[in-house]
Amino acid sequence: MFDGSVFGNIEFIRSTRVRRLSVRISAEGIKVMLAPGVSDKEAVQFVETNKKLILQKQQKIIAKHGENRILLNENSTLHTRTFDIIIKRAERTNVFFRFKDAVLTIEIPTTTNCEADETQVVFWNGIKYFLRKEAKRILPVRLKTLAEQFGFTYSNVKIQSSRGRWGSCSTHKSINFSFYLMLLPQHLIDYVILHELCHTREMNHSEKFWLQMDKVTANTSKALRHELKNYKLPHIPD
Prior knowledge:
The protein is of the alpha/beta class.
């Protein structure tokens, strides 16, 4: 009998974006993507056949990110670039978000299990809305300020939801930023912004690029890069 509990959460999702079958692995579980013509039985067999490999990859992910797994609960306060997030228990039947005076208050029913994955998803679905809103308000202005300060030019800026990259720059000098940048302190946000501005002149990570980065960060680009790489973020569910 198939036992998907060994992976944590397991979801089977039909999608026209996959040719046949694919598996997305996270510390919390796996998502099995099925093309419309693939049966549930075939999907289960695929997971069973590749069970050992999937578990090995999942354990590597857990080992890498486990110590950074910071869950939100009523005892935690999360600071973003422009607002704080606090969670309070209240006599209510649903989760309620209130944004006022640079504080996002999340009120939850008294019986809510904050550690549950589904609860974390609800929290972050609300938080992401305000992160995006604030990122659109703050990041383009800061980009313009730093570009003018150091003599850079760019064509436009977009705010996206990428979790794999803080930012990117196209050959046409179009800059994209992830709204998750708002979870970083200001000096690391500036580092990412300057990183993408330097890419408007050097589209690679050559020696010229890093010399440019040192020039605009007062020779601290290596230290800032290391700090960003090791910065602990809260656990953000898929």
